[in-house]
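Letters spell out the chain; backbone shape is given numerically. Both lines appear below:
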Amino acid sequence: MHRIIFWEILTLMAYPLMEHLTGKGYLYCGKYYRVSSELTESLQKPVDTRIYYETVRVRDGVLLFAEDHLARLVYSVKGLENFPVDTAKILSEAYSFVGLDGVKEGSIRIVLTNEVLLIHQADITLPGQELFEQGINTSILNWERKTPNLKIFRGDYKTTVNEKFKQENSHGLPFELVLTDNEGKLYEGSMSNLFVIRDGKVYSAPDSKILIGITRKRVMEALKRSGLDLEIGTFAPEDLDPDTDAVFVSSTPFDILPVRFIDDYEFRSADNEVLQMISKMYQEYTSEYIDATKRSLIG
């Protein structure tokens, strides 16, 4: 089969500091601004600066797994520029923003350059309950990541992904895109980590090939609690059994979601008992984290 493979490049493409803005205001270099501020428009214009970012889920006023997000932010900066990153200050300002903007549930985006710290609410599309119960529709994008472990804005990747999301497959517009490498193997989602369940075992691409997702790390804990180990392996969609294999994705905005369609391939992922157990263990773990964080914030 002839495949067109997109290769990531490290040359900068202009991209705005702020996107998907929602809420009443934002924190820019330590100062709170209303969305109606004149500054807002300029922050939404493309800039020729390397931009690092993390999208953090807010649950009941708690920044979910914030320490992991900040550790990955530091790792991304060290990978390319290595300027100092004050994680304690960022965490303090993030919680300050959550209080100022009255965020109880949703997502915030922490945006960092070598000169700027920007924190704002992000309008992230969340799946309805029916997608957790039935599974999501996905489309395939042939894209080979070159520096998958570094999370920065890349204009070429963003543009290609945005265009692909506008293209319907046989089941309508995709909720997520799944990436294939130059061998046609599924290895990651465009905004999520990808897993395959086969014969009671859970498979994922090797760490060197993917962005190590924050939710993925917690999925690992859910696997332990379920008595499961993670196996390393990737599969072409045509090699998967639609009746017995299951596919799911994990990401900060939506936790764990079963995959029903990968273009014309259909799976019964939502009915998979192993996936149901993993989801249950993940939710238990998340609830424990929120309760413990609340106690520490009060203390």
User: Anything to note?
Assistant: Residues 129-287 form a domain with the D-amino Acid Aminotransferase; Chain A, domain 2 fold (CATH 3.20.10.10). The chain has seven helices and 18 strands.
